[in-house]
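Field notebook, page 297. I keep forgetting to write these up properly, so this time I am using the form the group agreed on. The chain and the ligand, magnesium ion, are recorded exactly as supplied. Prediction of the bound pose follows.
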Amino acid sequence: MLQPSSRMASFVFHCVPAIKVTPTGLWLAVLIAVAPFPAVGQTTDLHQDRRFDALTWVQNSAEYRMLTEQTFRLALHPLITALNDPSITADEAQLAKGDFAEKPPAIILDCDETVLDNSAYAARNILENQSYSTETWNAWCMEVKADAIPGSLKFVSRAKALGVEIFFITNRRDVVKDATVENLKKLGFPASTENVMTKNEELGRGDDKVSRRARVAKNHRIIMLIGDSMSDLCSGMNLSETAQRNQTGNRKFQQLGSRWIMLPNPIYGGWQQALPADKKALKPKLPKTNTKPSPSQ
Ligand SMILES: [Mg+2]
C-alpha cells in the first residue's frame, strides 16, 4: 500500500512537473507537501471509509456474534468424530506423510480474528484517519487489550477438557510473542510460550505457517485447523487473484466444517489484497464457479 509520503512525492514530481521550475511553483510544491494527504482507504467522511461498514458489522451486529458462536458450537461435533477416528488428520502434509494415527490429538488455531478480536485497533485507525502499520499494530499487541472472539473460549476449553492439545499459530511477530501469550491467558485461553508460535521469516517461520504446522505434526495428530484466512488451513493458499482463491476454495470443500473451520473476517485479509481494482471487484452477474461446488464434491 502506498503511504502518504510516497503518494505525495509521486504527485509532485510526476503529475505536475511545471511547479518545479518557477518560484510560484516551488511554493505550491511546499503547500502540497505540508497539506494532509489521505492514504489508500482514508477519507475524512467516516461513512465513506471503505472499512466502516465491515467494522461496524463486526463490532455492533448480533449477527456477527451469532455467526462466530454458531461456528464454534458446530465445530465440536467434528472434533469429537476426529478424536475417535485415528485415520483423520486435518493437515494435508501430515496426511501425505502418514504415521500419525498413534500420536496424541491436537488442534491448531490462528489468533487474530479467530480467537482474538482486534476490532478496537481497526476502529482507532478509522477514527484517526490512519492505515495499518507494523508499528501501530505491534503497539496495539503490546497493550494486551484484544478481546475474545465470541464462542472461541468455550470451544477451546471444551477441546482441552476432552484431552486435545491446543496450539496457536499466528503471524504476529516474535517481538510481541510475550504480550500475545499474556493476552490469551488473560482471556482464559491455555496459552504459553511453547504452544503460541509466532512468525519469524529469518528463522524459517514464514507467513504460510507450513513449517510451524510441521513442527506440531511431528508429535501430534492435527485433528482440526481453525482460522479466518485460507493460509491458516494449508499450504499454497497465498494466492494473489480472487479467481484463483475461489477455485482453490471450491476444490477444498470437503474439508470445510469437518477438519477445517473458517471464521468470518470482513475487515482485512488476503481476500482484500487479491481484489481486482475498484469497480472490477463488483459482479452484477454472478460467475457460476462462485455459486456451486465442483462436481467431485
Ligand atoms: Mg487471523
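OBSERVATIONS:
- The chain is about 40% helix and 10% strand.
- Residues 110, 112-114, 227-229 surround magnesium ion (CB under 6 Å).
FOLLOW-UP: compare against the apo run.
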